[in-house]
Design goal:
The chain is mainly alpha-helical. It is built from 10 helices and no strands. The structure holds zinc ion (2 copies).
């Protein structure tokens, strides 16, 4: 049984692939880019090794946070759908704030820009994320679940929907949510977050809900249109190792400039 516990994340990914690969072929939102082994290799290494680091790091962070204090209240007696709605709204507010900060602080952006480096969005792009970015993000999203005393079932339902929704948001699938799209983020809404177009920078920070972007004035969703360009200027190399290491180097350079320490490598 132990082996299945370790394999479970990879079986989940195979299930996700079995759904999204045909979905993207049957209903593509944009023309699929030419096959690039370098891109797929990088994304697959993110899934295999990055995913392991993220699960391990997030587990440690959650255990640490839970050790600081017992839940301050208990809402476990409420109906499951009410608990789910509370987790969704509060966790997405936490996500919005953390995401906004990652875009605003240069040292943190160096880590988050790895997620933005995909020049062609598809379901795999959801996994292209630096572990330092994702672990902090996941821990912050988990704060309501840790401290407000939800029932385990409500947390599991939220976690499952969060995972599938976040992959759908990145996928190259032509799907709209109708009226639900006024509240819930759609793939087109999140694709605009990944646009490398000046008018779309720092927009659409919400993970699952559009309400926080509408409230804070950062929503962008031009009707019926999608970005022309994705990614970032000066992208990192198409290499998993570079994705893991370059944010640390860039952050160190930011810190050195901030403290006016001369860059001897330039001499
Ligand atoms: Zn972002
Ligand atoms: Zn994204």
């Amino acid at each position: 049984m132990e082996i299945w516990r370790h394999l479970d994340p990879y079986l989940t990914i195979l299930t996700i692939a079995a759904v999204f690969v045909p979905f993207e072929i049957l209903r593509p939102a944009r023309r699929r880019p030419d096959f690039s082994w370098a891109r797929y290799r990088t994304d697959l290494l993110h899934i295999l090794f990055g995913g392991f680091l993220i699960r391990f790091g997030t587990g440690l962070a959650v255990v640490f946070l839970a050790s600081l204090s017992a839940p301050v209240t208990s809402v476990a007696a409420m109906p499951i759908w009410v608990q789910f709605a509370i987790i969704l709204v509060l966790s997405d507010l936490c996500f919005w704030i953390a995401h906004r900060i990652y875009h605003a602080v240069p040292v943190l952006w160096e880590f988050h820009r790895i997620h933005h480096s995909s020049e062609h969005l598809d379901w795999l792009a959801a996994y292209r994320v630096h572990p330092a970015d994702q672990i902090v993000n996941s821990a912050i999203i988990a704060l309501p679940a840790i401290y407000l005393g939800f029932s385990p079932l409500a947390i599991v339902i939220y976690g499952l929907i969060y995972r599938w929704h976040s992959i759908l948001l990145h996928s190259n699938v032509d799907i709209d949510f109708g009226m639900l799209g006024r509240i819930v983020t759609t793939p087109r809404f999140h694709h605009w977050h990944h646009a490398n177009e000046a008018h779309a920078y720092d927009r659409n920070f919400g993970g699952q809900l559009v309400i926080w972007d509408k409230l804070f004035g950062t929503a962008l969703d031009p009707k019926g249109t999608r970005p022309e360009r994705y990614g970032v200027d000066n992208p990192p190399e198409e290499s998993f190792v570079d994705h893991m290491t370059s944010p640390f180097k860039a952050s160190f350079q930011h810190a050195r400039r901030h403290r006016n320490i001369p860059d001897r490598s330039a001499l």
